[in-house]
Amino acid sequence: MNKHKYKDKFDKMANAPVKELISSLAVPTIITMLVTAIYNMADSFFVGRIDTTSVASIGIVFSVMTLLQAIGFFLGNGSGILLSTYLGEGNKEKAQIYANVAFFTAFIAGIIMAFAGLFFSDKLALLLGATESTKASASGYLKYILLGSPFILCSFVLNNQLRYQGSAIYSMAGILSGSLLNIAIDPLFIFTFKLGVQGAAIATIISQFVGFIILLSGTYRGENIRITLKKFRPSGKIFLDISKNGLPSLARQGVQTVATICLNFACSNYGDAVVAGMSVFNRVMFLGFAVVIGFGQGYQPVCSFNNGAKNYKRVYDGYKFTAVITTCIITILSVIGFIFAPQLIAIFRDDNEVIEIGAMALRAECLVMPLIGYNTSSNMLLQSLKVSGKATVLALARQGIFYVPLMLLLPNFLGSAGITYVQPIADLLSFVLTIFLVTNKVKELKKLKKRP
């Protein structure tokens, strides 16, 4: 595709071939998600060289990372959808206000969380499911993660806002640089400086700060919306609009926090090896889902922009392409994951008990992974079209509506094996619910796309 064919990125969003456009936006996002997945696993990999208890500790704090991501995506996607829609309508002033309100709200929320981490990390670690053996290391790791939360939250917001403006390359640069730096300095702080688990957390927040600076600088490039206090004009209506459109993201990510806490408590009954095994399983699975989520996020700005421009054919064609391509990719990955499950788990902790529980969970999940492409694409379609009610229900389904009750029930009947079956059963039930909730909207889009 001739890069000089379109007069600006907004013209490109409206007229470039949908498959090529989504792919061009998805590739930087996929790279970002994959590197983020690797970055999330880096702590597990290096800490796994210490002992099983240390791996279990960072698995416990992983729920806080998902909470930070939930808040960041809530504000980032909530403002990003509106930002992209207003740009599609040609109203840049409104887009600027929504972007800045979301950014500075995230920064204020991060300051509050940093305060909580500084003074209450011990109590918070216990609330997250830490045991006597993991309490000290989990508390130390948690303290530093929360101290870096202002920059972590703002990075998530900027990442999403840049992506919704069609500037996925700037988004990728910020996240990529921070993630690669974290991987590079993790062993320095963990082993060279002999800081152990706390060293992993310090490396994480240093890396997040560097990524934040790069993302912030990206807002001052080209036609991107600038971050400036002059456009910070909060109001009840703005917060309501952002909340309504960001609610599915908050539900999707926030319920993962609840699910992880439930998992920690369920696993703690069976020892640190089970906690560590499921922690590694979650990080390996995130690597697979990164591709699907990345493609879905590549579709979202195309969907929002063209919905604002009332070009429903591009909205529908983009959804169909995204659902098909993500299903094909995740099917291939599920086959690889099923065959090499023990080897993938062993990369992070060469402990027979950890490998056994992690591989069992991974193989069970691989049986239903091909359904994830359709589930994710449909959820992002509804959210981008501002059908927030149904989008929120779908966002809650996978690790909330189905996962939490199953996690409370199955281990009582099947022991530790029951824990490994929770996620695949929840995914299967989510697929059925997705068909029920999205079918009418897709039919409506098919009708609208035929209109001149």
Detailed description of the structure:
Helix content is 84%, strand content 0%. The protein has 452 residues and is mainly alpha-helical. Helix 6 (149-164) packs antiparallel against helix 7 (168-192), helix 10 (272-308) packs across helix 14 (372-384) and helix 15 runs antiparallel to helix 17 (416-448). It is globular, with a radius of gyration of 21 Å. The mean pLDDT is 86.
TL;DR?
By secondary structure, this protein is mostly helical. It has helices at 9-15, 18-47, 52-89, 92-127, 135-147, 149-164, 168-192, 196-218, 236-268, 272-308, 312-339, 341-346, 352-366, 372-384, 388-401, 403-414, 416-448.
Please write out the topology:
Elements: H1 9-15, H2 18-47, H3 52-89, H4 92-127, H5 135-147, H6 149-164, H7 168-192, H8 196-218, H9 236-268, H10 272-308, H11 312-339, H12 341-346, H13 352-366, H14 372-384, H15 388-401, H16 403-414, H17 416-448
